[in-house]
Amino acid sequence: MILLVLIASVLILGVTIYQFREINRDYHENRMERKEEQIRQSIDLTIQKTTYPVTTENLGLIFKEEIYEIAVVQNMNFNIYSLEGELIKSSRPKIENDPISMCLDAEILNHLDVSVDKRYVERNKAAGDQYQASYTYIADRQFKPIGILNLPYFEDNSFNDKELNEFLARLGGVYFLMFLLAIGLAYFISKYITRSLEAISDMMERTDLTRRNEKIHLEKPGEEIEKLISSYNAMIDELSISAAKLAKSEREQAWREMAKQVAHEIKNPLTPMRLSVQSFQLKFDPKDPNITEKVAEYSKTLIQQIDTMSSIASAFSSFAEMPAQQNETLNVVKIVKLALDIFNEEYIHFIAEEEEIIAKLDRTQLIRVVTNLVKNAIQAIPDEHDSPRILVSVAIDGDMVKISVADNGIGIEKDFEDKIFEPKFTTKTSGMGLGLGMVKNIVETYKGSINFTSQPGKGTVFCVKFPRVGRMKTIK
């Protein structure tokens, strides 16, 4: 619509200018013809009244004074030439600066001679203005040519140009308003036309495999839009079915992997238990004087393996259990200090930005997060390290409370960074790889976030953020 208005305005501008020029040209041609005809009639009347013989040689005498009277009456200057093109008489007292020569060109005489109506019009420019000059024969009483009448005509377009500029200014104002109106109409019409497409586009942008997606319902959509909506709704149904199948498949696969991991971890302590029992059966002698010590040693071995199996079961149970949404209002600094009390390593240091940073969390789950991160940091430091160091810090980060655990251990290789939070993934020779997965599960349950930065061979920094609240009110 805007383009059509622009094209129309340009076309009308061009047509208007062309039309004004045509009007000017027709006006000047008609005016020159009228003046020429009036001057010819005055010349013929003068020839009829003269007492001189009507010859070319007497034209100067015949129009000695009359040429000025005719020029004044007609308000138009003219010249009289002989048939050979020599100037005989001019109504202008001085013609040196005028585009009038003392002798006509042979080309003009030839054009005049071959012309059917014995008239020739020359068009040219003089002093920046359009200039026309007409040439016709002057005849005697017997219609025999005795001279040439030259009528110079200067086109004055100043008035018409002024009118044209005023008209174009008004027309430009009208089209400017039409252009603004076209922009407004184009905007509202496009919004009206595309509202259905925008609704479909918004729904497509919100389409997510991890949740249930809504279908599109529009009142009285167009035929094409209705087909598009039907296709989208059908796609949503198929997507829901596919997502359900995928989720079921992933759950089954996860449980299969978990079952394999559980079986593998349980088999590890069962083997030494079996060997211990078999060895006890083969070597048991009630009369052996050292039987008491041997029974105690076998019992200790079995108890250790049973404890290992119990810790395995507890780890899997803790990972599978969703943290309870207690939402206690607690001092994070105090709870983190409490969690660090169970560690005896002297190289574990703690700093806090403030003495009290408040958040709504579960005390047990927060302790579990801190202890798991610190355990991982301890295990990441080799035994032969000269100066092991673990720094636990608590600080405020905007509307969040930030808990950082930094170590100078072996770091995490680039290839393992994407898998570090996956269940059953571990880079250690022992353990089940459930600690960081459980930490991530707890943190995300409380609308927090966890990330890490690491440099292989230099150390790792884990950063946990939870939403914080204002200070606790003291109850009197």
Automatic annotation (TrEMBL):
Entry's transmembrane regions: 167-189
Keyword Thylakoid: no
Keywords: ATP-binding, Kinase, Membrane, Nucleotide-binding, Phosphoprotein, Transferase, Transmembrane, Transmembrane helix, Two-component regulatory system
CDD domains the record matches: HisKA
Histidine kinase domain: residues covered: 261-470
Gene Ontology molecular function, alphabetical: ATP binding; phosphorelay sensor kinase activity
Protein name, as recorded: histidine kinase
Species, as recorded: Maribacter algicola
